[in-house]
Amino acid sequence: MKVALVHDYLYQMGGAERVVLALHEIFPEAPLYTSIYDRDRMPEEFKRMEVKTSFMQDLPWIFKKPRHYFWLYPRAFESFDLSGYDLVISSSSAFAKGIKKPAAAKHVCYCHTPMRFVWRYQTYIREEGINPIYKMVLPVFLDRLKNWDLRTNRGVDHFIVNSKVVSARVREYYDRDSVIIYPPVDTRFFRPQVIHSDCFLIVSRLLPYKRLDIAVKAFNDLGLPLKIVGEGPDEGRLKRLAAKNIEFLGRVVDDEAVVRLYAGCRALIFTGEEDLGLAPLEAASCGRPTIAWSEGGALETIIDGQTGVFFAEQTAESLKSAVSRFMGSKFDSQSLRQQAEKFDKEKFKERITRFLHENKIL
Question: Could you give all domains of the chain from N- to C-terminal order, each with its CATH number?
């Protein structure tokens, strides 16, 4: 069977890209089709793949302003010639599911979420702080994108989703059934270490909708040390808000260094509403709990009082109260590891393979 993998874009590393790496372990001979690929910013594993990019790869400033070309991504994925493939697996939170599959092929879409900026537009523009001029222009393009998104559903034979939250969205927006297979955590790599630190930790892309400003304001008041790993368009604003007890580490290229940060922190801070969110599971795999807002995918990965502490309101005051409760609590490293192991990468690969066999795709 000839298999092709398809992914939205490769210019930053996150949970969706870890899914692609795991899928490629199942199908090591499969080429990976994507709109753009920034080799210098992606892990070495991608350099060992056959990565095929679209015409967008050569556009000016594409890696500095990838979102500014959002209107071109549908055309990029429709331009791929996938003739000769028996199975196409797309990893999509936006455009990859819009590929044109061969008539006799099967298309399985691992959907991280339907397009946030199309289906949750009002929330998106509020959280992202969109320029007023763009707010006037965007609706014209987004209506077309919504129609394109609905039309391309006809090319998907099966939807796999990463959480109950996304399953509900796929039902609401697409009127399609889906199967939940949680994304992978490499529990062999993310492991406990004997490291002692007083610091709390954030590992995240620095995007407005992640609401990291809540953590910055809370820890400004608490005066406790907080380290922030990641980069993104909200970095400047967050740095201006932060007091001296908050340290920005930027993009940490060395994965072993990230493991040491997880293993040595007092707790991970998780302030956004995520579709699932792998960071709390990576922290748990390293034996460390998470303090999280009690919405979205965190409810599927964190057990309150056992592997973490929830705060009820997305405010600095609510987070401060949760940190105070956390300081009086104890967490068992073995219980944290057991929770993470439910999402282990090998289990993910087994579940994907079983799904393909049960549906007579393989």
Answer: 3-184+344-358 (3.40.50), 200-341 (3.40.50.2000)
